[in-house]
Amino acid sequence: MLSFNALAARPEFTVSSVDCRDDHRGWSAEQPRADVRLVLVRSGRFRRRVRGVCTDLDRTIGYLGLPGEEEQFSHPAGGDACTSISVRSDLWRTLAGDAPRFAGSSLYVDGRLDLAHRRLLAAARDDGTEELVSLVAQAVQQVVTTPALAGGGDEALVAEARGVIGADHPAASGLIPLAGLLGVSPYRLSRAFTRALGVSLTRYRNGVRVSRALDRLEAGEPSLAVLAADLGFSDQAHLCRTVREHLGHTPTALRRLLRADPAHRGDVTRDRRHGGDVEPELLV
Fold first, then answer.
1. Do residues 215 and 194 share a domain?
2. Is the pTM of this model over 0.85?
């Protein structure tokens, strides 16, 4: 018996947790699927057979499933739990090229890929796009012998992307639409930001949104829910986590700090310096 739990759903990809409770040595057939999917095992083990080739899968070996494949599965060791990442065709082409050649479908899950998997699961509740692109790109490097070329001109590309983000263009809402607007692969754009600025595109974009949140809080914005929606956060909790990560304060504490009179701010500074009591919400 299979159970699916959606962890993230975007127009370009979905991430699901798949739990299987089957316990059988025979082969069960699955209906061919139309998507590209990357499957990584979190616990347990099972077997997969495609075109007569059988692979034993566990936490050290995952697989890449391609459209139209006739898959068969066997679970001689009991149940298992996996992460299944379904990648839409447009995103897949930007990462693997228009006509990729494959060295195989099995993936060795080394430390880097394991860490990328864990980071994706941790980030899925907020966005996770950059983590997903990084993970799939690592898989592409293993199984695709003709990956899409990365290209050059990082500085100019990053400058153009920063302009789009600064202008609050709708495509700046995420890595994939921004890369599409600029005519490059998401992987190239993500790598370019890290190389040129030393921070990920997601962190840079969130930094811009946090700065805009400060402007609104300073101006007296009364509703954090409205603020989150206006600035493109998934919800109020996402806004609060991001603001605290970047600034060390909650939005509520920032609102009080920004609207406090100068004398009170001086008292807070002196209290910190001399070890006095400080209002808990103002602590970094």
1. no
2. no
